[in-house]
UniProtKB/TrEMBL annotation:
InterPro entries: NAD(P)-bd_dom_sf, SDR_fam. Pfam families: adh_short (PF00106). Belongs to the short-chain dehydrogenases/reductases (SDR) family. Gene3D superfamilies: NAD(P)-binding Rossmann-like Domain. One of its GO terms (molecular function) is oxidoreductase activity. This is SDR family NAD(P)-dependent oxidoreductase.
Length: 263
Protein backbone atom coordinates (compact mmCIF):
# COMPACT_ATOMS: atom_id res chain seq x y z
CA UNK A 1 0.00 0.00 0.00
CA UNK A 2 1.14 3.53 -0.77
CA UNK A 3 0.41 4.62 2.81
CA UNK A 4 3.10 2.20 3.98
CA UNK A 5 5.66 4.71 2.73
CA UNK A 6 4.67 7.00 5.60
CA UNK A 7 6.31 4.47 7.91
CA UNK A 8 9.48 4.13 5.84
CA UNK A 9 12.69 4.76 7.78
CA UNK A 10 15.95 4.72 5.81
CA UNK A 11 19.26 3.53 7.17
CA UNK A 12 21.17 6.31 8.89
CA UNK A 13 23.54 6.69 5.93
CA UNK A 14 20.99 6.16 3.16
CA UNK A 15 21.69 9.54 1.59
CA UNK A 16 25.36 9.73 2.55
CA UNK A 17 27.43 11.66 0.00
CA UNK A 18 24.42 12.82 -1.99
CA UNK A 19 23.70 16.45 -2.84
CA UNK A 20 20.00 17.25 -2.77
CA UNK A 21 18.43 20.57 -3.77
CA UNK A 22 15.17 21.44 -1.99
CA UNK A 23 13.07 24.41 -3.08
CA UNK A 24 11.07 26.32 -0.49
CA UNK A 25 13.40 24.88 2.14
CA UNK A 26 13.22 27.74 4.65
CA UNK A 27 9.98 26.67 6.32
CA UNK A 28 7.08 24.23 6.33
CA UNK A 29 7.32 20.97 4.42
CA UNK A 30 10.47 22.10 2.60
CA UNK A 31 12.28 22.69 5.88
CA UNK A 32 11.18 19.30 7.20
CA UNK A 33 12.41 17.58 4.02
CA UNK A 34 15.73 19.45 4.15
CA UNK A 35 16.23 18.52 7.81
CA UNK A 36 15.39 14.87 7.17
CA UNK A 37 17.67 14.62 4.13
CA UNK A 38 20.53 16.05 6.19
CA UNK A 39 19.72 13.70 9.06
CA UNK A 40 20.25 10.74 6.74
CA UNK A 41 23.55 11.98 5.35
CA UNK A 42 22.80 14.32 2.45
CA UNK A 43 24.36 17.69 1.79
CA UNK A 44 21.30 19.86 1.26
CA UNK A 45 21.14 22.93 -0.95
CA UNK A 46 18.28 25.07 0.35
CA UNK A 47 16.73 27.28 -2.31
CA UNK A 48 14.48 30.01 -0.95
CA UNK A 49 13.86 33.74 -0.99
CA UNK A 50 13.33 33.96 2.78
CA UNK A 51 16.90 34.34 3.99
CA UNK A 52 16.22 34.73 7.71
CA UNK A 53 14.20 31.53 7.84
CA UNK A 54 16.71 29.73 5.60
CA UNK A 55 19.48 30.73 7.99
CA UNK A 56 17.44 29.34 10.89
CA UNK A 57 17.12 26.04 9.05
CA UNK A 58 20.85 26.11 8.28
CA UNK A 59 21.61 26.59 11.98
CA UNK A 60 19.25 23.77 12.98
CA UNK A 61 20.98 21.36 10.58
CA UNK A 62 24.49 22.33 11.69
CA UNK A 63 23.59 22.28 15.40
CA UNK A 64 22.20 18.75 14.98
CA UNK A 65 25.59 17.61 13.69
CA UNK A 66 24.39 16.81 10.17
CA UNK A 67 26.39 17.63 7.00
CA UNK A 68 26.74 21.38 6.51
CA UNK A 69 24.08 22.58 4.04
CA UNK A 70 24.22 25.45 1.57
CA UNK A 71 21.76 28.30 1.08
CA UNK A 72 20.96 29.52 -2.43
CA UNK A 73 18.87 32.73 -2.35
CA UNK A 74 16.45 32.93 -5.26
CA UNK A 75 12.98 34.37 -5.82
CA UNK A 76 11.27 31.94 -8.18
CA UNK A 77 8.72 34.58 -9.13
CA UNK A 78 11.31 36.85 -10.75
CA UNK A 79 14.16 34.52 -11.73
CA UNK A 80 14.83 33.90 -15.42
CA UNK A 81 16.51 31.15 -17.42
CA UNK A 82 19.98 32.65 -16.93
CA UNK A 83 19.49 32.73 -13.16
CA UNK A 84 18.80 28.99 -13.18
CA UNK A 85 21.72 28.31 -15.52
CA UNK A 86 23.94 30.22 -13.08
CA UNK A 87 22.53 28.14 -10.22
CA UNK A 88 23.39 24.90 -12.02
CA UNK A 89 26.89 26.14 -12.78
CA UNK A 90 27.39 27.10 -9.12
CA UNK A 91 26.29 23.62 -8.10
CA UNK A 92 28.76 22.11 -10.53
CA UNK A 93 31.62 24.28 -9.27
CA UNK A 94 30.87 24.21 -5.54
CA UNK A 95 29.30 20.78 -5.04
CA UNK A 96 30.56 18.85 -8.03
CA UNK A 97 27.31 16.93 -8.38
CA UNK A 98 23.55 16.85 -7.90
CA UNK A 99 21.74 13.65 -6.96
CA UNK A 100 18.27 14.80 -5.98
CA UNK A 101 15.84 17.62 -6.71
CA UNK A 102 12.78 18.25 -4.55
CA UNK A 103 10.30 20.62 -6.20
CA UNK A 104 8.46 21.78 -3.12
CA UNK A 105 8.13 25.59 -3.34
CA UNK A 106 4.57 26.76 -3.96
CA UNK A 107 2.46 29.88 -3.62
CA UNK A 108 -1.32 30.17 -3.44
CA UNK A 109 -2.14 33.86 -3.73
CA UNK A 110 -5.90 33.64 -3.30
CA UNK A 111 -9.00 31.58 -3.87
CA UNK A 112 -10.70 33.37 -6.77
CA UNK A 113 -13.28 32.37 -9.40
CA UNK A 114 -11.93 32.41 -12.95
CA UNK A 115 -14.37 35.16 -13.95
CA UNK A 116 -12.77 37.52 -11.42
CA UNK A 117 -9.13 36.45 -11.75
CA UNK A 118 -6.58 39.23 -12.06
CA UNK A 119 -4.39 38.59 -15.11
CA UNK A 120 -1.19 39.73 -13.40
CA UNK A 121 -1.84 37.47 -10.40
CA UNK A 122 -2.52 34.58 -12.79
CA UNK A 123 0.83 35.10 -14.51
CA UNK A 124 2.71 35.24 -11.20
CA UNK A 125 1.05 32.08 -9.94
CA UNK A 126 1.84 30.16 -13.12
CA UNK A 127 5.45 31.39 -12.94
CA UNK A 128 6.06 30.29 -9.34
CA UNK A 129 4.16 27.03 -9.42
CA UNK A 130 4.87 25.77 -12.94
CA UNK A 131 7.25 27.68 -15.22
CA UNK A 132 9.95 28.20 -12.58
CA UNK A 133 9.96 24.45 -11.91
CA UNK A 134 10.56 23.82 -15.60
CA UNK A 135 13.42 26.34 -15.71
CA UNK A 136 15.06 24.86 -12.61
CA UNK A 137 14.67 21.26 -13.74
CA UNK A 138 15.86 22.02 -17.26
CA UNK A 139 19.00 23.68 -15.89
CA UNK A 140 19.71 20.80 -13.49
CA UNK A 141 19.09 17.86 -15.83
CA UNK A 142 22.71 17.57 -17.02
CA UNK A 143 23.94 17.37 -13.41
CA UNK A 144 21.24 14.88 -12.45
CA UNK A 145 21.98 12.74 -15.50
CA UNK A 146 25.59 12.41 -14.33
CA UNK A 147 24.55 11.06 -10.92
CA UNK A 148 24.67 7.28 -10.36
CA UNK A 149 21.18 7.33 -8.80
CA UNK A 150 19.35 10.57 -9.67
CA UNK A 151 15.88 11.44 -8.41
CA UNK A 152 13.29 14.19 -8.81
CA UNK A 153 10.42 14.38 -6.32
CA UNK A 154 7.56 16.84 -6.66
CA UNK A 155 5.40 17.93 -3.73
CA UNK A 156 1.92 17.66 -5.23
CA UNK A 157 -1.45 18.89 -3.99
CA UNK A 158 -4.83 17.99 -5.47
CA UNK A 159 -6.10 21.34 -6.69
CA UNK A 160 -8.42 20.80 -9.67
CA UNK A 161 -11.25 22.35 -7.68
CA UNK A 162 -13.39 25.44 -7.90
CA UNK A 163 -11.64 28.71 -6.95
CA UNK A 164 -8.10 27.25 -7.05
CA UNK A 165 -7.55 29.10 -10.32
CA UNK A 166 -3.96 29.42 -11.52
CA UNK A 167 -2.67 27.31 -8.62
CA UNK A 168 -4.86 24.41 -9.72
CA UNK A 169 -3.86 24.82 -13.36
CA UNK A 170 -0.17 24.97 -12.43
CA UNK A 171 -0.40 21.84 -10.28
CA UNK A 172 -2.15 19.98 -13.10
CA UNK A 173 0.63 21.12 -15.41
CA UNK A 174 3.25 19.87 -12.97
CA UNK A 175 1.62 16.45 -12.90
CA UNK A 176 1.90 16.31 -16.68
CA UNK A 177 5.48 17.60 -16.46
CA UNK A 178 6.39 14.80 -14.05
CA UNK A 179 4.77 12.19 -16.32
CA UNK A 180 6.73 13.47 -19.31
CA UNK A 181 10.02 13.57 -17.40
CA UNK A 182 9.51 10.04 -16.06
CA UNK A 183 8.74 8.72 -19.54
CA UNK A 184 11.68 10.48 -21.16
CA UNK A 185 14.11 9.19 -18.52
CA UNK A 186 12.82 5.64 -18.09
CA UNK A 187 15.48 3.80 -20.11
CA UNK A 188 18.64 2.57 -18.43
CA UNK A 189 20.90 4.90 -20.36
CA UNK A 190 19.13 8.06 -19.20
CA UNK A 191 17.29 6.90 -16.09
CA UNK A 192 16.10 9.47 -13.58
CA UNK A 193 13.61 8.44 -10.91
CA UNK A 194 10.70 10.91 -11.11
CA UNK A 195 7.77 10.76 -8.68
CA UNK A 196 5.28 13.01 -6.93
CA UNK A 197 3.95 12.98 -3.37
CA UNK A 198 0.65 14.51 -2.29
CA UNK A 199 0.76 14.37 1.52
CA UNK A 200 -2.70 15.82 2.00
CA UNK A 201 -3.12 18.77 4.40
CA UNK A 202 0.08 19.91 6.14
CA UNK A 203 0.46 22.30 9.07
CA UNK A 204 2.22 25.17 7.28
CA UNK A 205 1.95 28.94 7.30
CA UNK A 206 0.57 28.91 3.73
CA UNK A 207 -2.26 26.61 4.75
CA UNK A 208 -3.01 28.69 7.84
CA UNK A 209 -3.16 31.82 5.69
CA UNK A 210 -5.52 30.27 3.16
CA UNK A 211 -7.69 28.33 5.62
CA UNK A 212 -8.17 30.83 8.47
CA UNK A 213 -11.19 28.97 9.85
CA UNK A 214 -9.23 25.77 10.38
CA UNK A 215 -7.48 25.02 13.65
CA UNK A 216 -3.81 24.58 12.60
CA UNK A 217 -3.36 22.00 15.34
CA UNK A 218 -5.91 19.75 13.60
CA UNK A 219 -3.50 19.19 10.71
CA UNK A 220 -0.49 16.86 10.57
CA UNK A 221 2.95 18.37 11.13
CA UNK A 222 5.31 18.45 8.12
CA UNK A 223 7.95 16.50 10.06
CA UNK A 224 5.56 13.54 10.22
CA UNK A 225 5.13 13.40 6.43
CA UNK A 226 8.67 13.37 5.05
CA UNK A 227 9.20 9.60 4.73
CA UNK A 228 7.87 9.20 1.15
CA UNK A 229 10.23 11.94 -0.04
CA UNK A 230 13.21 10.21 1.56
CA UNK A 231 12.16 6.92 0.00
CA UNK A 232 11.93 8.26 -3.54
CA UNK A 233 15.21 10.19 -3.14
CA UNK A 234 17.19 7.12 -2.12
CA UNK A 235 18.37 3.87 -3.63
CA UNK A 236 15.66 1.83 -1.84
CA UNK A 237 13.17 3.13 -4.43
CA UNK A 238 15.16 1.45 -7.20
CA UNK A 239 13.44 1.75 -10.57
CA UNK A 240 10.12 2.99 -9.18
CA UNK A 241 9.33 6.01 -11.32
CA UNK A 242 6.31 7.81 -12.71
CA UNK A 243 4.30 7.21 -9.53
CA UNK A 244 1.86 9.66 -7.97
CA UNK A 245 1.55 9.01 -4.25
CA UNK A 246 -1.71 10.50 -2.94
CA UNK A 247 -2.25 10.18 0.80
CA UNK A 248 -5.51 10.76 2.68
CA UNK A 249 -5.63 13.39 5.40
CA UNK A 250 -3.46 12.22 8.28
CA UNK A 251 -4.22 12.67 12.01
CA UNK A 252 -2.79 15.73 13.70
CA UNK A 253 -0.85 13.62 16.20
CA UNK A 254 0.86 11.48 13.54
CA UNK A 255 4.43 10.58 14.50
CA UNK A 256 7.16 9.33 12.18
CA UNK A 257 9.52 6.68 13.53
CA UNK A 258 12.46 8.48 11.95
CA UNK A 259 11.94 11.37 14.34
CA UNK A 260 12.36 9.04 17.30
CA UNK A 261 15.63 7.75 15.84
CA UNK A 262 17.01 11.29 15.65
CA UNK A 263 15.85 12.31 19.11
Amino acid sequence: MQEDLLAYVPTLEALQGRVILVTGAAAGLGKAIAMACAQYGATVVMLDKEMRRAEDTYDAIVNAGYPEPAIYPLDMQGANAKDYADLAENLREQMGRLDGLVLNAAWLGSFTPIAHYDAELWAKMIMVNLHANFLLTHACLPLLSASPDPAIVFADHESNKAFYGAFGVAKAGMRAFCDILAAEHSDSGHFIRVNSVDTGPVRTSMRTLNFPGENPNSVARPEALVAPFLYFLGADAGQRSGEKLVLPRQPADLQWAGEAVSA
